[in-house]
Amino acid sequence: MPKLSVIVPFYNVQQYAPDTLRSLRNNARGDFEFVLVDDHSQDGTPAVLERAAEELSEVARVRYIRHEVNGGLATARNTGLDASSGEYVTFLDGDDWLARGYLADLVAAHEELGCDFVRTDHVQATARARTVHRVPVGLRGEVLDPRAAILPADRSTSVDYAYAWAGCYHRRLLERGLLHFTDGLRTAEDRPWIWKLHREAESFAVLSLLGVFYRRGVATSLTQIGDVRQLDFIRAFDQVIEETAQDPDAARLLPKAVRTYCAIIAHHLSDESKWEPAVAKELRLRSAAAIARMPQDALGDVLDTMDLNRSARLRRLRRRASGTKAAA
After folding, report:
1. Is 326 helix (H, G, I), strand (E, B) or coil?
2. Which tens digit of pLDDT belongs to each residue from 103-122?
3. Which of 28, 44, 194, 289 has its CA 20 to 30 A from that of 117?
4. CA distance 102 to 98
5. CA 280 to CA 83: how far, in whole Å?
């Protein structure tokens, strides 16, 4: 069994893939496994991966898989999980990169702590600018209860730091069904995933370890494209609400889930200029329907405690949803 499997999906990142692959080589060990998944790229990415897989196989175990149909990031990560065999699992996106030696330090720290998963800080790279983003958990290097890290509802917590690649996960979580993503989600795929992990895993820790460089502003990223695929955040958060409502501790956890959902809706509505006109209209319709589906008692409490701008925007949607329901 390899010590670590690194799952790396790629899609139309010919320009950035060489940096990603070079960083993998700088982290390679004979007991590390790199699972490279091409999600049916239409540029030169497959040729880059084929060459890199051959070169990487000299210093690590490599699996290269190419999808016949584009399925999105969640599906590509699931393909990698199904093909992986490492004792530990981590992720990297095909346009990001790692500092030299980061993976060895990550695994060593995880092994020493012995917990289900660990989370790490990361560096956001936007053009030449570099900004450190930290896990919103104060205690570092100590084993903690993941469920306790979901709350409080009115502050940023560990479930808001949803980046799957900012951490490492023991294989027992994969065997328990806690590491797979919801197939077909094009955006916000990390949100149901991180909530399930925190509700159902038994232990985690946060490391003061920097080594993941997250590239922002990539033209092909869905975060830069205002098309209908971005609206998958609604499906993702519906799943968070539905699954959290079934939790034995739902009364305590649902206000946090509802507040986060509302904050994301308000964020997307605040800049409709980035959306295509038809998508902006669909965003308003779907957001109003989502608000109508939320637990209304929790929603009322959230709207009463949010800032006035966001609260007013969401209340208008709530009235619209009520009016549509009454007319029907």
Report:
1. helix
2. 999 999 999 999 999 999 99
3. 28
4. 7
5. 38
Tokens of 123: 């560096």
pTM: 0.93
Q: How far apart are CA 165 and CA 24, in angstroms?
A: 14
Position 272 scores a pLDDT of 76
Write the CA distances from 226 to 34, 156, 167, 221, 272, integer angstroms: 32, 26, 29, 10, 9
**52-79, pLDDT tens digit by residue?**
999 999 999 999 999 999 999 999 999 9
Q: Contact, 89 vs 1, CB < 8 A? A: no
Amino acid at residue number 290:
A
Phi, psi of 194 (to 5 degrees): -70, -35
**Residues 125-165: pLDDT tens digits?**
999 999 999 999 999 999 999 999 999 999 999 999 999 99
CB 94 within 8 A of CB 13: yes
What is the dihedral sign for C-alpha 19, 21, 24, 26? negative
- Give the whole-angstrom CA distance, residue 164 versus residue 161: 9
212-248 burial, b for 16+ CB within 10 Å, e for fewer? bbbbeebeebbeebbeeebbbbbbbbbbbbebbeebe
- Between CA 196 and CA 219 the distance in angstroms is 31
Whole-angstrom CA distances from 306 to 5, 161, 268, 311 are 42, 20, 16, 6
Distance, in Å, from the CA atom of 104 to the CA atom of 109, rounded to the nearest integer, reads: 9
pLDDT of 326 above 60: no
User: Which DSSP string corresponds to 81-128?
Assistant: HHH---SEEEE--TT-EE-TTHHHHHHHHHHHH--SEEEE-EEEEETT
What confidence tens digit (pLDDT) does each residue in 226-253 have?
678 889 999 999 999 999 999 999 999 9
Helices (H) and strands (E) in the chain, counts: 11, 11
How are beta strands 117-120 and 204-207 bridged, if at all? parallel
Q: Using CA atoms, how far apart are residues 284 and 119, in angstroms rounded to an integer?
A: 34
Averaged pLDDT for residues 169-177: 98
